[in-house]
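Input:
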Amino acid sequence: MIAFGSSITEPDVYQRCAEPGIRRAAESDSEIRAMAAIGSIFSSYNALLDEFAEREDLEALVLVHQDAEIVDTDFCATVRGALADPEVGLVGCVGAIGVRSIAWWEASVTCASFINRYDEHGGGDLPSFSWAWNDAPAYARVGEVETLDGFVLVLSPWVVRNIRFDEQLGEFHGYDLDLCLQVREAGRKVMTADFRAIHYRQLDMVPDPEPWVDAHVKLADKWDGRMGIGTGAGSWRDRALRAEADAEAALMLAHMNSLESDARVLDLQRALVETTESISWRITAPLRWLHRTAPNRRRPELTPRSLSKSLTSAETP
Amino acid sequence: MIAFGSSISGGEAYRRYAEPGIRLAAEPDSEVFAFAAVEPIARTYNLLLEAAAAREDLEALALVHPHTEIVDPQFCAKVRTALADPEVGVVGCAGARRVHSIAWWEGDVVRANVRQRYEEYGGGEIESVSWAQRQPPPGEVQALDGQLLVLSPWAVRNVRFDETLLLGHGFDLDFSLQVRAAGRKLMVADLHVSHHRSLELISDLEVWIEAHIRMAEKWSGTLDDVPADDAGWKRRARRAEARREAARAIAMSESLKLDARVLELEQEFKQKTGTTSWRLTAPLRALNQLRRERSEGRREA
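Output:
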């Protein structure tokens, strides 16, 4: 039995995002546990692990963020395929190697089969590089990785029974990297597999920088060079001075991006104003008004569906 | 006599921006030292200081970046007021307190009416260091922005730019710290200035990073607290590396937000200009454009 679990802080988000994906992916005997969060994500997920650990028929536990939607209908088959190797402890659809910190995206990402769906500025999708394998770069592949993005995590029964999220690490950030490190330290593999998901999230990657920085430091201190975490080139002094310089260079880039954004937006706004204040725009206003107010029968939809419908009706005697 | 000096690496920028500003601000007896740039910038600035120091009647030397345009007819009067306090060594139009690095704008910024004029995307004007929380002048600061530095006669005769700083960034912070180390004050005055520069604030980020490190090494203990031992450096490195990765994520987020904002407006624009009525009236606009161009051509002729 493949079980699904979610820790929920915003029920409407769960209903809109995670629930449809779980229903799509689940099998008739799958158990779905949509649990109200009981504190940090570490504690909530541990509660889910405790709940399923005793289930003898457990094939896998899938932990799904409330804002993540599994896309594949054959998800369970993919999971079974990945977990057929008893050495595999964890499976995900986004992973990286060469990871030194919770900023796994700064490492060499090997698989990223997800879309970041955002609401800002009218909304949109940012498909990651292996969302569509036809367009994926040469480095995109499924296989063994050092860490997974935790928005959809598949745990083997062995992990459910033997490993726990480290509740000392904080509230949210770093729970996924730490779990992957524990599993790998225990000799099991962490793998990416060929399934896809949508992550409904804002464009801010780190909306809460201070807790994120604290988690980064805590995790680096905990692993302190083991499994490559917290390592770097040079003395501690060299590393401090370089990182401080790099950080301010990155902030400068952020400022530049923000200035460029303002300038480009201003330019487009000017073009829009020029358009809508031009004589030709004003003299054609009645046409647009007519177009907007005309009854639907005067505006046949030219979608492929309506076209095929009209062809069908034309053939009918 | 209030003198003006500029290190000119591109004659065009000086002619277009700095020179008209100096002409606006200068008094009849003002001397203008316009020197060809010698690398590093500290070398040219020291040449300017040597030239100005020879003038016994010197009241101040304004070092003007070629892309900086003084737009303040009251400039000299404001400089005299700011330098009336003999403790003031240098006056500028922007600077900051609680400065920890060459990125002075990450401190508590004090800034006069300084505008940044850019040419990209049809051109425009924004407030300088628009992203920072700013205090208005006058105000004492720890570092001044090098786009405009007005030096007292004491600073001209007693402090020199560090010519060992070869990377071109941070000369202003270094000079500021030297002046303060000598016991003089740095002030931001209400000097109105336009800075004509690209939206790309730094084009050579790797060089800037190296300059940042060099300056941190040179002023270790002044810009920061030096850890007592290796464990202290380790703690500092850990936090710095975390902040670096957060900053990179923030930069990436800004870039994503930029794309999303632009995409939204581009779609709106496409929607508006894709209507039948807009397409029908295209010949009218083309004719209108042609008429405008001909009329401009006749005017120019």
